[in-house]
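Dear colleague,

Following up on Tuesday's group meeting, I ran the structure prediction for the two-component complex that the binding team flagged. I've pasted the input sequences exactly as they went in, so you can double-check that nothing got truncated or mislabelled along the way. The structure tokens for the whole assembly follow below. Feel free to forward this to whoever is handling the docking comparison.

Inputs:
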Amino acid sequence: MLKVLIPTIMLFPTIWLTSPKWLWTTTTAHSLLIASISLTWLKWTSETGWTSSNMYLAKGPLLTPLLVLTCWLLPLMILASQNHINPEPISRERLYITLLALLQTFLIMAFGATEIIMFYIMFEATLIPTLIIITRWGNQTERLNAGTYFLFYTLAGSLPLLVALLLLQQSTGTLSMLVLQYSQPLQLNSWGHMFWWAGCLIAFLVKMPLYGVHLWLPKAHVEAPVAGSMVLAAVLLKLGGYGMMRMMVMLDPLSKELAYPFIILALWGIIMTGSICLRQTDLKSLIAYSSVSHMGLVAGGILIQTPWGFSGAIILMIAHGLVSSALFCLANTAYERTHSRTMILARGLQVIFPLTAVWWFIANLANLALPPLPNLMGELMIITTLFNWSPWTILLTGLGTLITAGYSLYMFLMSQRGPTPNHIMGLQPFHTREHLLMTLHLIPVILLVTKPELMWGWCY
Amino acid sequence: MANYKEAPLATQPKTLDPAEYFNLSPDYRRAEEKRAALRAQLKRQYLEQLNNPHRKALIEDPALTRWTYARTNNNYFRPTAKTSLIGGLFGVLPLFVLYVVFKTDRVS
């Protein structure tokens, strides 16, 4: 763990001390080095749930894929931001990359934390660099509104979590996850305990997001610059999922009764947000709502608490992280050329950008969960476990899959096919950097088809 | 007014057809000619921008800007009886219906 954390902290001197000519090269190379070191984590030899060299930071089959995803994403974010940050003064460029690296550090510590309080502190700490990125470097005036919604929704959800954690510390004496997984099931039988249960989970449900409290997500995703959107979609949503998976261990047996409303919200949310996607005019907004839809499926899978549900949830989280980030990068390429996110403006791009049309195609096919990509495998496992939970869910999840296919194809056909408008013929050709960005997003998704054991979690 | 000829960029609108001349009032004909002149000017402006070889930027269409603003900012929503009914029917009622469905299915 330290072999990645210390290079990430040393990224800060790298950013501030390199000469301006070499800033992007060195930071991208440094973060790629960190990403390749993190890939060595994927080989774990012990059969236990956790591998740790110290008491505070650990890795295990549940969180290693998420950690690797986080480390993989930093060079991609730096690559993606290169174009729109370049005109700014050099110290602001350094500040931007510093914020990304700070986010990375907090995320590594959050995912690797063994104490729940450390996880909570890092969970809150990731809000600050993201807020600064959204409100300072976003492009429209609505970014202030978006930052406010983002900050206050997540904070309002996580203050009950703090109270709940302190209560847990009082009653069990420890908050280390290594110890808590062996503790006796708690006696949860009063109204106060129900509030405690809700308090534990609301923070993560807001972050996931669950359908009723998802309003911050489209705003934050649309207004954020591309690196902000990427990290939000790929990793920050998964913080919520990961936190839920960890907390559910301790929350039985009350979860059998109390999870109903949230499972229902998640399932109905898949259909509602999927339908909203079909009526969007803004490309980034469509991708943001599709994120809500997929994460609704993940939330349903986690709340069911079966091994297949957990495995499906992790697989879908990893696959969705990569694919959603790829889609945001593609949307950003269109935005940088036309300075507009309207879908009907940048149409018929296949004629002028044929290779990019291939990336659009693969990313959209992955989004609609085409076999054998891991998106489908995760979705199938979650759908199966939901069917086991109650056969009526197949109506909702089946309809959700259909709508997902509908809006993914709609996105593809709207942006690639059709007549190219006459007045946007003078667009810049695609840079090698952008093609590299897309390959680095999509090749892991395709490679994960061959070895899904990396993502399965501890329940295979 | 009767000798309104076709301009290079604006075809003759039907209402200015000399065969229709005596069906229409003079005010109407004057208004139609002004509108046709405006259309011709707008089209000329668009074609100048479109065919400018040094143009690098997008041609801005104010109608598109207005349309996207109207679609994305929900300032036009008012909670009336009809919208509340639709919202309740699709947003609140399914949650309770699904709760009942799942509960009875799992308990039985």
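Chain A has one domain: 1-40+58-180+188-455.

Cheers,
M.
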